[in-house]
Amino acid sequence: MISSLTFTLIELLTIIFFLTIIITFILSNKPLNSKNIKISGVSIGIVFSWFGTFILGTPDLLPSFNSSEIVILTVFLLFLGLFLDLNPNFSKIFVWIVILIAGTTITTWMINKVDFYSLFFLIIWLTLQIKLKKRPTSTNITISPTDLIIIFISIGLGLNAWINNMFVDRDLAFGLSSIYLAFYFCSRIPWNISTGYCNTLIGGGVIIMIIIRLLDQYPNLLLSILLLGFIMFIDQNIIYLSKKYRICNTMPYLINFTILATIPIALSILTATIASKLTIG
Fold first, then answer.
1. Contacts of 112 by beta carbon, 8 Å cutoff, 6+ apart
2. Is the per-residue pLDDT at 137 higher than 80?
3. Which domain holds residue 148?
């Protein structure tokens, strides 16, 4: 039974991986991209919405305010990101106002109230958006860490959920990582692809929503989830280590990022395991 379920998940992750590549390729060849309009990230929203519907079921016609409305909120972030991507001349102030409204919407919708708890998640949302939109801080690095941050945080969240037998959240987290891995793969190919607001809003939004779902069921996971936040700062660590150790300059950026990402993920898993034992006890 377990192997069957595992195989089904692997099969689904494979499907959405290649589906993301196909849709990204189609969108990357649209004439809009020649006008510096970044719509390739729409593929992320389309595929995750389908995947989320497959995992959670079709959303109600009249959505309710709870932590199960990930698909509805993903579609909301998709259209919001597309709106910003189709209008690249918006001022930064206006863009950040929209980002703030988006974060407020998803946190209050998922929690169904406004309190310190929702403010905590709003701060995480803004921190994520700042890090995801940040360009490489070294002229020697041309790869944006955006996709890698989302990939490894999602993997960490998925493992946390798996340890605590939250299989729906595990599937959602691993699905997000598979989709962004496909998009990262596409960005390494000489297609007309670049990171837009669809990428950062959907990736950051789904991460926040999964975190809310995890903490809603197991508050003891707070520390293990916070440890995953160190993944957002790996870019700066790579730059520092590259200056200090020559071996870091000889290895590809992806390898450096992966090695460093395993540290907070391993610590997070260890903490989650201890937390699960305490919960059982």
1. 65, 66
2. no
3. 2-280
